[in-house]
Each structure stands twice: as structure tokens, then as C-alpha cells.
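Researcher: Predict the fold of histidine kinase.
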Amino acid sequence: MSGYPRFRTKLEEYYYSLSINKKITLSFMVALSMLIILLAVFAFRISSGILIDKAIENTAQNLKLVSEKLEIIFDNAENYSKIAITNNTIQEVISEPQTKDQLDNYNKNFAIQESLRNIVDSKTFVDALIVYDLHRNIYNSGNLGNIRNVSDVHFKAFGNSLYGVAWENTKPSNYLKGNDSRNVISLFQKFNSAKTGQTLGLIQLSIDENYIANQYSNIDIGASGHIFIVNKDGIVASDTRKEKLYTAIGNDEYASWAIGNEGGKVFHLDGKDVLVVAKSYPRFDWVIIGIVPIYEITKDNRVLTDKFFAIGALFVLAAVVLTLLIAKSITSPLNEIKKTVQNVQDGNLDVWLNVKSRDEIGALAKEFNKMVGKTKLLMENIIEEQRKKKEYELAVMQSQINPHFLYNTLESICGLADLKRNSDIVKIVNQLAQFYRGVLSKGSAIITLEDEIVITQTYLEILKIRYRDQISYTLDFEPNMYRYKTIKLLLQPIVENSIYHGLKNKRGKGRIDIHGRIHGASLMLCVSDNGIGIPKERLDQIFKAKEIQPSQNGFGLNVTNERIKLYFGPEYGLELESVFGEGTTVRITLPALETGGAAE
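Model: C-alpha cells for histidine kinase follow.
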């Protein structure tokens, strides 16, 4: 690795020593080659994604078709079971008392067998139809041997129910047919006498699993794609590959997903990527699964990509020839300068020309960088001057508020003196002194929220002395909020606005509620009053005024909103809600900045 930086340095020196013609030719050839490669890769990925989505859609449709076929088969099976148990011959024979007459029993068995055979013969999907009576006699549709009586287990499953249909998942048959055993899906139905309603027995209708597998064996989902069915435990219930029957898919990566989801997803299986599409079949708690190798889905796409690369190589060669012919009139440094100038024209001054050439273009780039740097510095100075100007304007507006409050308070002191309320005079003078001590705040525009709450509370206490019991207030802040920053006179102008424009003209006692909470990285303050509220047409205009006049309603709100945005950014400020005749709520959003951080 130690030789790599040296090699890179030599390569850069060689490149920068080349003529502009050779630079353009080499750069264009490499760039075009990379672009064609990237384009081919992205085209392959995008088109493969489209093909996979289409394969999911087509396979899902095929699985839906399988589900519909199964539904028809099982519905018909239940109907044929009902036909069998309502057959007059079967009802009459099983309802008759048992006898020891062998001929009579033979005739009964023959009569039921004929009835069952007539039902089964025309139904290709019915493998066997078996009737069990309460005397443990077994009747079948014919050609069945070694029938194992399973009625006890299934009678218990039905319990005390008079009727019922129960399906049993795929398992080896309890009979032989043509001396062969098979795997079957069986329906069991308890049946009763049509005359007396008493239980007569149990009927079993079995469907060969091969017949189920044949329903999807001819569905094409790719040369090596296949469809199979698993139960809710992940055991294969039906598959054209008989060696897979009764095996578990639990060890496969896709198993848990397929059992719990529908749709399609790509998995890595047996060393290759495959598309797994699943559809549930609620009747049996089955999942029908189709698996298609991804290489089969995208094989045509790979051929197209190979051709794209071949054509791209020809284009690169043609481009190199053309570049050699026009290289004298085109240079990459000039293009870089052009793009940078366009960025500056669009207002982006955070640009830098990194041209390493030591020719005239390099000198031009150097001077251009100087020019952009000076322009950026000039713009920053102008912005700073505008910010300070606005700050001064707001400070002047603020100074117009304080004397107004002072005059009113002094008038109140005179009124209290006439009434000889000396204790109230002492109290209001102390409160007034404390208020202005907080307002001055050693000249700082940024103070702690605790100091701002003290200023606002002092202001409210002065007003309570002036208005006596006509105004009440509550303060509720999280203790952790006190150390965070705010602008000075944030709450006081809002409270003053609430009193003079909301509570002053209200009949009855006025109330102001002030509370604050920490929400993530922000402080959320709220000032609510039960005053006369603000008409909607006036509410919409409070923050839209371009020129702020002290005599306007909402002057304190607009000034405070502007100051918040000036100090903390445009994403912070005030939100105003008001219902005319009911009251007004001002919500304040500030950044959670602790004392000593930014925005001082």
C-alpha cells in the first residue's frame, strides 16, 4: 500500500502534463465507458425488477387459479357426501335392525355398495366413499380392501353435534385400492336418520392427493419452477414431487415468511436466488407456494444486456474518433468554468474551481475564485448589516412599548396615593423596579427562560394591583425549562396584548394561563386568555402586515414573532388561535438551547 500514493502522484503528474487534446480524448473515453457500464447495470436492475414484479403477478394469478380449482373440488365433495347420506337406500338399510342372517347382511352390503358406486363412478376426483354405521359395519364404493375403521376417532371429534363436516389433511389412506395404498385428503360427515333424527353413522369421502397435484402440475411458472402446498405447520400436503410429501420446509429460509404472508419475495435457496410466491387457502389452513429461479425470469434480460454492452463498446470507439476531431475546440477546464459560472448565476456562491492546469485557463480559474470569494464576503456583510438594521428597528419598537406601560403604572400610583393605599404604593413601586431591572438585563437581548418568567410575573403582579381582582393568572412550567434561552420580553408583550385587546373589554373576571413543556429539541410555550377573542378576518392579517405600526392591534404579537425568527431562525415563532367571543391562545416554539450555546 505504501507504493500506491507514489503511483497515484506519478499518474496525476502524467495526466496534467498531457496536452488538452489528449486529456479530452482520455477523459471522454473513460467517462463514456463508465457511463455505459453504469447505464447497463441500472437498466439490467430496473428491467429485472420489472420482470420479477410481472412474474409475481403472473404466479399469483396461477396460484389463485389453483385455489379456485381446489375450492370447486372440495365444494363438490361436500355436495356428493350430502347426496350419499340422504340416499334412500343407504338411509333405509342402515336404519334397519341388525340380524345374524348372512344373506340378509350380504344383500344390505350389496345395496349400499351399489348406491355408493353409482355416486363415485361419475366423479373422477372421488377415490373412495366409505360408510361406517354404529354397529362397526363398514360399507364402501367397491374395489377397496383392508379398510381400517376410523369412525371412533372421528365420532369423538364431532362430540354431541348432530351434524358436521370435518376435513382431514393429507395422510396415508386407511384402505387399499387395487392392492395399493395412497395419500388422500378425506372428508368425514356425521349423518342421521331422515325420519327420526337419530345418528346412523359416519361417511368418509377420500380424494387422492395425485388428483390434487394434477390440478397444478401443468401450470407453467418456468422450466424448473414448481408449485406445491404446505399446511400451517410447514408440512408438505401436496406436491408433484412425491418424495417431498410430508417433509417439512421449516429449515428453508422462506418458510416462516411464506406461511405468514401473501405475495412474492426473493430468497436465496440452494445456492441460487429464487422467487417465492405464496397464497393462503383458508379452508385447510394451507399455503399454496410457487417457486421460480430468478435466472429463468431474467434470462432474456441478460441477453439484452450483453447486446447492450457490445453496442456500447462500438459507441465508445466511435466517440473516441469524433473526440479526436473536435478536441481542439473543446476543453474540460472550460466546461468546468462554464458550469461554475452558471452556479454563481443561480445564486450559489459556495463554489470553487479546482483546475490544476498551469496554463492560461488555470490562471483564469484562480482569478475567478478570488472574484467569487470577494462577492461571497460582500453578500455576507450585506446580510449582516440587514440583520442588524432589523434588530435596531425592533429595538426601537420595543422602546415604544415600555414608556406606555410606565405611564399607566405611574398614573396608578397617583390614584393609589389619592386613596391613601400606602401599602399598595410600596408594593407596586417595588414590583415596577423589579420589572425594569429584569427588562434591562445588563443590555443582553438573550436571557434565560427563568428570567423571562420573572419579568412576566412581575408585570402581571403590577396589573393585579391596578385592576385588583379583575385579572388572575397561572404559571406552569417544567422545572428543566428554566435554564434554556429565550429572547428578552418574549412573554410580556403577548400577555400585554391579551390584557389590552382581550380582557380589557371583557365583562367579568379575566384569566391568563401560561405554561411550557419540552418537546424533543424544542420548547413549547403557550399563553391563553378568556378574553373577547379576535375576529377571523383580523386573525388572518396579524402576521401578514409588511409595516408594523405601534397603534395596530397585534403589534406585540407581530414584533415578538419577528424577533424570534431573527434570533433563532424561520422555523420558530408564534402560532395564533382564537375564537371570537371565547378567547385567544398563542403558541410559541423555540429551540431548546441551554445558556452558553449558540444564538447569543
